[in-house]
Specification:
Strand order of the largest sheet: 1-2-3-4
Order of helices and strands: EHEEEHHHHEEHEEH
Number of helices: 7
Helix content: 40-55%
Largest sheet: 4 strands, mixed
Distance between the termini: 48 Å
Length: about 240
């Protein structure tokens, strides 16, 4: 089985290109491999149109899994699966489902009511609007404050902003930047903790030299000051703004 987060993936927030997705799909068909798409961020997009699903749900080798944890609350642990009928049938005949009726009955009941009442649709629309404002605020602050040598990509969906510092910054991040940021009330994810290679070889994502920012809990009003504090620490290390 091949496991993927094809859209707005954690930690970088980027999406697979259609060309790459096609290559992966063709390879998996040739090798008779199941593709498990963790489609947890697709609904949280910031453009006018939702992203297309890069892998054709309904084909015999593709499973798409979604979750309400990213939409309503992380403690719910309830999601849904889109897959061919034969796979859905196997999942539905699992002993845990047969004996208990479903997974997490109480949470599932609450979510069912949120769906049928239209509350979930309204809530997700509000989430998109609020996260769009956050992305704009973060993007504006980073453009205004980051040194030229520090790279980043403005997200088009999901929760995360990925910032890559110059090569050789891993020790600076863990020993200097983390405590300095904490002292001024700023927290971020250390990129090395997200590295799939665990430092075994050079990482094309730049994980050892990267920071992960999250849109989740901060407010729009908090973003400019928080980003300004982080950018100042980075300018103190890497120099000034782009001329």
């Amino acid at each position: 089985m091949v496991y993927l987060v094809p859209t707005f993936r954690n930690p970088t927030g980027v999406t697979l290109t259609e060309e790459t997705a096609n290559k992966i799909h063709n390879f998996c068909v040739e090798q008779n491999l199941l593709i498990h798409c963790d489609d947890v961020y697709n609904i949280l997009y910031y453009g006018e149109k939702p992203p297309v699903k890069l892998f054709p749900v309904g084909e015999s080798n593709v499973i798409s899994a979604g979750t309400f944890s990213k939409l309503l609350g992380p403690g719910l642990r309830v999601g849904w699966v889109e897959a061919p009928k034969e796979i859905i049938s196997k999942l539905g005949s699992n002993g845990m489902v047969v004996s208990g009726g479903c997974v997490a009955q109480f949470s599932s009941f609450l979510i069912e009511r949120a769906i049928t009442s239209g509350d979930l649709t309204r809530h997700v629309k509000d989430l998109r609007a609020r996260y769009t404002e956050k992305v704009r605020a973060i993007s504006a602050a980073l453009k205004a404050g980051l040194p030229e040598s520090v790279k980043w990509t403005s997200p088009t969906g999901g929760y995360f902003v990925w910032i890559v510092l110059p090569e050789g910054s891993a020790e600076f991040i863990t020993k200097e930047l983390v405590p300095a940021a904490k002292a001024v009330g700023v927290r971020f994810g250390v990129g090395a903790r997200s590295c799939p290679l665990r430092g075994a070889s050079p990482c094309e994502l730049g994980c050892p030299n990267a920071l992960r920012l999250s849109l989740g809990h901060v407010t729009v009003d908090q973003i400019p000051e928080g980003i300004a504090r982080l950018c100042k620490l980075l300018r103190d290390r890497f120099g000034g703004l782009k001329a």
